[in-house]
From TrEMBL:
Belongs to the short-chain dehydrogenases/reductases (SDR) family. Its EC number is 1.1.1.333. This is Decaprenylphospho-beta-D-erythro-pentofuranosid-2-ulose 2-reductase. It comes from the Bacteria. Keywords: Oxidoreductase. One of its GO terms (molecular function) is oxidoreductase activity. It is an enzyme of class 1 (oxidoreductase). It comes from Streptomyces sindenensis.
Length: 251
């Protein structure tokens, strides 16, 4: 449960090496979050992330989690919830893919879709059910503005995020009145390891800015968070640009 100051006491991160997720965890730990689970594939990077957060005063544990292995999600995540209530679940896993390669190799494109959408549907429903059973909690879903309208440059990734976004919105509607909040986060271009070497897009941000927006959204119990906030207006306009013109825009 949240403490007297309204800060979550426990956090489960799906995608335990995500730079955005770890930046969010640091901010929540500074606000009195004391129990953190990092879910991901076993790796030195996951161990290092756990050690770093422990150094900030949190009780941090790791759990094996593979987005592509949907059949294992109920058991793996069930172990976490069996240890006690979780106040916030941050679903931050995903892969950007490689558009040019993925168009040539359909199975590579399928992996993007299975990770970003199918895996998220499975894990999201498992976590939502557990949060509903305990009667409280927030599920934060890291989406993307790429899902707002498919672009030629990344329509495979964008389509997977579009599916995720629609799923998360519907799940939030389904959970109304249960005590469980679903918050969809739509960042634009974020400077991370995954985007290193790519041309920077307008209104780019970093993991810290996204983390700050997530923490603020949790405090306000927002349903949708745009990062930066100005993207809401930009995407509202781009959504209605005729397709022949949209194809020619440098977006």
């Amino acid at each position: 449960m949240k403490d007297a100051f309204g800060a979550p006491q426990s956090l489960l991160v799906l995608g335990g090496t995500s730079e955005i997720a770890l930046a969010t965890a640091r901010r929540l730990i500074a606000l009195r979050t004391r129990r953190v689970w990092l879910a991901g594939r076993p790796s030195p990077a996951l161990d290092a992330a756990a050690a770093e957060l422990r150094g900030r005063g949190a009780d941090v544990r790791t759990v094996d989690f593979d987005a592509l292995d949907s059949a294992s999600h109920e058991v793996a995540l069930g172990k976490v919830f069996a240890e006690g209530d979780i106040d916030v679940v941050l679903m931050a896993f995903g892969v950007p893919g490689d558009q040019a390669r993925d168009e040539e190799e359909p199975m590579a494109a399928v992996r993007v879709a299975q990770t970003n959408y199918t895996g998220a549907v499975s894990a999201g429903l498992v976590c939502a059910g557990a949060l509903q059973a305990q009667g409280h909690g927030s599920l934060v879903v890291l989406s993307s503005v790429a899902g707002e309208r498919a672009r030629r440059a990344d329509f495979i990734y964008g389509s997977s995020k579009a599916g995720l976004d629609a799923f998360a919105q519907g799940l939030g509607d389904a959970l109304q009145g249960t005590g469980v909040q679903v918050m969809v986060v739509r960042p634009g271009f974020v400077r991370t390891r995954a985007t290193a070497g790519l041309p920077e897009q307008p209104l780019a941000t970093g993991p810290e800015e996204v983390a700050e927006a997530i923490v603020t959204g949790l405090r306000r119990r927002s349903e949708t968070v745009w990062v930066p906030g100005s993207l809401r207006v930009v995407m509202a306009a781009l959504r209605h640009v005729p397709r022949p013109l949209f194809r020619r825009l440098p977006v």
